[in-house]
Amino acid sequence: MLNNYKYTEILKSIRAIDESTAKIKIQHVELFTNPPHLVFTIITNIPLADSVILDIQKTLASYMPSNFKDVKVITKKVKADEELVKSVLFNKLSVSYLYLTIKQEDIFVSQRQDTVKITVRLQPSQQTLYTSNRVSNQLIEYLSNEFCEDFVIEIKDKAETEYVDDLEEADASDFFTAPMRTITVKDVNSYISYDKTDTAVYIADALATRGEVYVCGIITGIREMQTKTGKTMFLIDFTDKIARLTGKFFAKDKKVQAIKLLKENEGVIFKGEMGEFNGYPDFSIKNIGLCTFPEDFVPERRAGKPVPGKYKKIFPCEVEDVTQLDMFTEVDYVPGCLIGHTFVVFDIETTGLDNVNDRITEIGAVKIVDGKIVYGFSTLINPLKPIPKDIQALTGINDEMVADKPTFSEVVGDFYKYIDGATLIAHNANFDVSFIKKSAEREGYYVENNYLDTMEIARKNVLGLKNYKLNTICEHFGIQFLHHRAMSDAHATAKMFLEIIKLKKCLPN
Fold this sequence. Notes:
single chain; GMP Synthetase, Chain A, domain 3; six-stranded mixed beta sheet; 14 helices
């Protein structure tokens, strides 16, 4: 019923429904004749809304013969957890490839974004059998039918005494274990199927979780979008005065109007699913409640190492102008709203997008005091692991450049001192801030600074751009810089932020 061409076409159509279906795979199809219908089992690495499942059923039905238009969909949520992949692969090898005599300790699994790398250690005689029987291709096909992620398999000589994986597995110290802090809100009313729970976790803590979570805050913006299939999706920006988050909500019928009636500065509490998409936090809103967010809310500070009394390794320095403004840009005017405020605009370069397994290779930051860029903080960092070739090509930072540089544990105290008392600013801030937080937590420092996202600010105040990437916005303002190096990106972001504030004439909420 499904030849390879039609299967590929169907899968392409399903994956185009919206971003939550981008990695879906069809595991198997069952045909029933009394009454005639088809049951498709699909696997997904993130939760699917009921409306999305309905769209999948309609898409599948459109490809079926007229006597099999009744289509049902069963979803299996499978996340390629490293231990789970290792277990599944070991079982497969033990049953189907007995001649390889594999032990579980011969299998190493690591992950970056949606790619899972597997290393199998074999004796030379086993390698010949493995290669001649094209076992890698068979295993990748098998795993691809069980998980949504992409797989790469390499073989290493079992005689090697040392194994170094360029995607090293995280140890227990890499994971945040402190209890999550909670906020209690008042006057909770169900707005869209909310259960009236009045307690939520801090957004900053929720970003480190995966699964169902309650978060709350004050709405700072609402955007309406249409998916490729014509569905209405809202992006709701909100803050709990410590961190910011954008939740997505798929609406239809009366719910569309209900979301349009929500207003900025309104208190909300959401029940939703915290996941990950392309390496970034991804929050899907399921239920919405209205509430009164406490005006006297004082954030509970995590207990951690104090701010160091002095700089030890990396010292703030005079800022070298690594960006240029065009001749028509006014540089001396300082809006009054900036007086009395201190910001640290920063950017990081890393070995990848996973803040658990990847590491920081460079920090660049500039400080804005009373509307003036005053001094910077810049250092390359030895990540204590190889930098992937594609990342080297993107950033220009290679293993040789960082070999004699300090480690993050050696510079984190200085950076913690540098940002003390400042509001952080970054472009696509959730990535940079979550990476800094996770990295600092490993060393006993808890970054609790408020932060602003210049991508979000630009979307609201610089209309009509083709996209809101850093280089696109800077080009709009005539700011020239060396992209994908931390100090240059940070300095350009700072100048861009100041230009937007000059237009806006007030600070973002």
